[in-house]
Amino acid sequence: MTTRTSFSVSRYAPERGALARITARDSVLRRLDWPILLSSLALSLIGALLVWSATRGRTELNQGDPYYFLFRHVLNTGIGLALMIGTVWLGHRTLRGAVPILYGISILLILAVLTPLGATINGAHAWIVIGGGFSLQPSEFVKITIILVMAMLLAAKVDAGDQLHPDHGTVAKALALAALPMGIVMLMPDLGSVMVMAVIVLGVLLASGASNRWVLGLIGAGVLGAVLVTTLGMLDEYQINRFAAFANPELDPAGVGYNTNQARIAIGSGGLYGAGLFKGHQTTGQFVPEQQTDFIFTVAGEELGFIGAGLILALLGVILWRACRIARETTELYGTVVAAGIIAWFAFQSFENIGMTLGIMPVAGLPLPFVSYGGSSMFAVWVAIGLLQSIRVQRPMSA
Amino acid sequence: MSNIPETGRTPRVQIRLVVIQVLVFSLLFTLGGRLWYLQIRNGKEYADEAKSNNIQQVVQPAVRGSILDARGVPLADNETRLVVSASRTELMKMKDDGKAVLTRLAGVLGMKPQDVMNKIRLCDSRTPKPCWNGSPYQPIPVTDKATTQQALTIREASEDFPGITAELAAVRRYPAPGKARTSQVLGYLSPVTDDEIEKAKDSESPFLRSDQVGRSGIERTYDKELRGQAGVTRYEVDNLGRVMGQTKSDPGVAGSTLVTSIDARVQAVAEYELAQAMKTVRGETDKITGRPYEADSGAVVVMESKTGRVIAMASQPDYDPNVWVGGISAKDYAALTSKDSNYPLLNRAIQGQAPAGSVFKVVSASAAVRAGHDFNDKYLCSSSYSMGNRSFANFESQGHGPITLGDALKYSCNTVFYRLGHQEWIRDGGLKPKKDAKDWFYRTARDFGFGGETGIDLPNEVKGRIPDRQWKQSFWEANKDAWCKQGRKGGTYVEQIAYESCLEGNQLKAYDSINFAIGQGDVLITPIQLATVYAAISNGGTLYDPTVGKAVISPDGKKVREIKPQAHGRLPVDAKTIKDLDKGLRSVVEPGGTAAWRFGGWPQDKIPMHAKTGTAQVYGKQTTSWFATYTRDYTIVMTISQGGTGSGASGPAVRNIYDALYGLDDAGNQDLKRALLPQPQKTLPKINPDGTIEAPAVKPYDPKSQLVDPNAEEDRGGQEPLHGPPPFLRD
Predict the structure, then answer these.
(1) Are A268 and B46 in contact (CB < 8 Å)?
(2) Is the pLDDT of residue B692 over 60?
(3) pLDDT > 80? residue A240
(4) What pLDDT is stored for residue A2 in this prediction?
(5) Would an 8 Å CB–CB cutoff place B54 in contact with chain A?
(6) Residues B38, A344: C-beta atoms closer than 8 Å
């Protein structure tokens, strides 16, 4: 193990001037992964435009101010950026020490959701209303917590050089720690988030080098769990309906199939170049429900066309591609596992979110990272970007 | 340090990272592919769907064009009624879906709240009527019979009635000027059906849900012209139906006005006289059956001889066309289509067919001339004609000796035509017809237009029937199984006939031709065919397509499309024969002729009258009376089913129509001031610069107007009163 300090570089060169420091070859700024940062920023700003377009006319939501959501989305992005910088400042290794505390806070928060403090939005009792128009969705942060707590456990002995791969006991402990918050989130019920968390766990296990038996076992358990959940009636009716509507959207075009139908019409009508920002009929006509959050991709599809929607896919691709590189190139398993967890999270959540608007995935209430309106999600994904940056910044300059 | 490689990963982790990367990018490519599929490959389809999602049409129905008579008197127009409508989109925005407003509205209109709500609910398979079948974006009429007071209440307190409108709207009306109902000729409207909308979707004149469509009569023939084009305002709406803007809109075009050749005054006379003739004859006893005449139905056609234009056309029984307005009730509809009412929807002038009887003799006389006989040769009018062991009697077995064909028409001598018909049958080869059989009688009948449509501009005209060899054959093929089953040698009359028909019903027998020569047997004709033929004899031989429509005038009055008379053929005889026929028919009303007793006092030298009577035997029924007449300008044909003889049943009625046209009294004195139409109406009604058309007032027909002394009903005679026909002249 090398140094434990996080923002360490400057200490080695106290004599250099400020400008020189940040432009120096080994400066943090130079070592940041700029493609990820710029892609994330680009996605956030495209998101701001799309959110604006989707909410301009929704007077029942924007309190008469067409810029309300635009402003809030930009503000969220700013806060997200700050959170990223903070995360890089602290460094993922520092956070490693704080993981137990974070874990505890997370559990408390999601438990709070289940108390009268929590609020139900769109069938999921997943929110804590703070007041002043702010509300918090703790399950977003739980995703990070799960990644960090599992990475900490699984990588500890390996990074210490005691083991090549995490042993069964460690894996079991890590899974148990992940299972607790997942169980609570399931009770909300926020099935979409649970699905994402399950995929995160899978990604983390894969990257940690845990034995194949665990990986296969987990996949099997996932399938079994899905079967049990549906057969034992643990799903609410709205959830079953969503799946039914996915299987056959024409079933009830005015009811549950409405979302998927209207979403597909919106995207399909965009064509190559789209209708132009603010000019989409489906968007201005407010035919797609939840368009500024879960169905934000339909605005891109309709108003920006294949080119705009494709750009969003490409930017996500850049982030995931760079993240994969970071996962591969870091020297510690801890960093690799955290990166892999984030990759699994971003990839699956994006796939599910965009997939449902394209009609190839069932509807689940998940935001599109950076693009969807929503503070909790925005903050969480920027913290994740911070973690990725930290992993990259702190890997040795040359192997 | 440890055995961990520099990179910090074992090969296992390395491989798994590659797996993760591959998985992640396959997901991204899946999304990209699907995006391409939706946006590029199927983009057009979704774009169309999005458009229809966003545009809602609000239709302002076009005011249907009026139907006018030849002088501009409306036979069908629109009256404005106060229609109270509710806008669903407005009501549905309210918290209680508009319940409070509708309850208040029901209070004002004096209706039950539930009835009002039922009227504006949308129809689907589970909703019983009443319900709204049109577009939910269309204001839905709650009532079209609101009073001014109710409308004012709604308008003045508009804040209490959001989404409710009280406006004047046009509703079809058949005003029956001068009591001229013109029922079957006008036809009627009913709402468009889903099938029709679907069928006409891609045509030039697609239907709108709110459309009323002409179902019969001229309402149907000229439906496209009368309907106009509804105005369509297209609104862009959001998912709640809130209007966001207005896009391309089509201003409506009101329906064109149709001027017909019908003269409401003459129509009123024709309707009255037909009904009166039937009423009168019902009071007379049929000598053959010993029962009063049934006179179950009848028709009269008044036509311009030189153009084929229909001035009046009446059919009995008739009905009030206003029963259709605002949707016919189930009870009324059942009544109109029941056997008891004897189907008043039928226009017997074009849809009633019966054996022709003696009015057919103009065909036979022409056929004889075409077969090489001289019109003015003498032909024996014996009291009966024998063929084998069968004897065909003349009417009342009266003989007239050798006479010309003209006289044969005058006396309506059957035996002259029996003989000619039989001779021709023999000449054509009899039961074994020659290859080049001329079939002059049958051919001439067809050439006169019998057995085919006249082409009148009214829907569903029937063709009648000419029972020639081909018809015999096909009729036999269609019926022989039934005949052979029913037939029995030496059985009852019916069984015997069936037996014979079974064996050789496909053969054109001698007696078929003999009967045919006097318009009896299986021949069927319609009044309009007969009128067309007699008009042709009058005008020198041109068979016109009868027309009711005369001109289509655009709503602004600027464009006038005249409907010109069109001919569908000429009589197949030369001008001399036509003259001969004309002379013969003229002699029918002159002393000795079969119709003379009905035209006492007629100014024959000023207005030459031509006529032919007919009394057709119908198996199992009383005789059908036919009366075909013409002057230089007009042709009038009247028929009464089970009405006895032609001149007997229809004579006075037809004469009264002529009297009204020419302004004659029973003594034959003409008073042009009283004449309704001494000459056919040549001009169209006057169109004002603003597009309106002036209509002269129509006085109801006074049947007493033709009497010399209107107060002396009993003394209807002229200078030479004739009380009843000489028996031998009855036809």
Answers:
(1) yes
(2) yes
(3) no
(4) 44
(5) yes
(6) no
Q: Which two tokens stand for residue B7?
A: 């990179």
State whether residue B247 sits within 8 Å of chain A by CB. no
In this structure, the dihedral spanned by the alpha carbons of residues B585, B730, B348 and B364, taken in order and rounded to 10 degrees, is -50
Residue of A165, A206, A285 lying closest to B10 (CB–CB): A165
Evaluated on CA atoms B676, B678, B684, B686, the torsion sign reads negative
Q: Which pLDDT value is given to residue A63? A: 75
Closest CA to B299 of B355, B349, B345: B349
DSSP A252: S
Helix (H) or strand (E) holding B562: strand B560-562
Per-residue pLDDT band at A9 (split at 50, 70, 90): very low
Interface of A with B in 303-332 (CB under 8 A): 305-306, 309-310, 313, 316-317, 320-321, 324, 327-332
d(CA B645, CA B729): 11
Cα(B229)–Cα(B59) distance, integer angstroms: 10
Percent of chain A with pLDDT over 70: 83
B187-232: per-residue pLDDT in tens? Answer: 998 777 777 777 877 776 677 766 788 889 999 999 989 988 877 7
pLDDT value at position B337? Answer: 85
According to CATH, the superfamily of the domain at B264-334+348-468+508-729 is DD-peptidase/beta-lactamase superfamily (3.40.710.10)
DSSP letters along B372-423, please? T--TTS-EEE-SEEEETTEEEEPGGG---EEE-HHHHHHTT-HHHHHHHHHH
Classified as helix, coil or strand, B1 is coil
* Per-residue pLDDT at A254: 47
List of E strands, B130-178? 140-143, 164-173
Strand, coil or helix: B561: strand
Spell out the CATH class of B56-260: alpha beta
Q: Which residues of B touch A158 (CB under 8 A)?
A: 4
How many angstroms separate the CA atoms of B471 and B589, rounded? 36
- The CA-based angle B429-B431-B433, given to 5 degrees, is 40
- Number of H-type helices and E-type strands within chain A: 17, 3
* Best to test chain B binding among A162, A213, A281, A286 (most B CBs inside 10 Å): A281
Q: Are A376 and A140 in contact (CB under 8 A)?
A: yes
**pLDDT tens figures, A289-318:** 788 888 999 999 999 999 999 999 999 999
Q: Name which of A209, A271, A330 is nearest B10 (Cβ-Cβ).
A: A209
Cβ proximity of B516 and B358 under 8 Å: no
For testing the chain B interface, which of A61, A328, A361, A395 should be mutated: the one with the most B CBs within 10 Å?
A328
d(CA A294, CA B340): 69
Dist CA A387 CA A389 (whole Å): 5
Sequence spans of domains, chain B = 11-41, 56-260, 264-334+348-468+508-729, 469-507
Residues 6+ apart with CB under 8 A from B82: B144, B145, B146, B147, B148, B150, B151, B166, B167, B168, B169
**pLDDT band at residue B11, thresholds of 50, 70 and 90?**
confident
Contact A203, B20 (CB under 8 A): yes
For chain B, give the mean pLDDT.
86
Residues of B in contact with A282 (CB under 8 A): 50, 53-54
Q: What is the pLDDT of residues B125-149, one digit of tens each?
A: 676 666 666 666 667 888 877 888 8
Please name which of A233, A242, A236, A244 lies closest in space to residue A290, comparing C-alpha atoms.
Answer: A242
CA A341, A346, A349, A355: dihedral to nearest 10 degrees? Answer: -130
User: In this complex, is the C-beta atom of A396 within 8 Å of any C-beta atom belonging to chain B?
Assistant: no
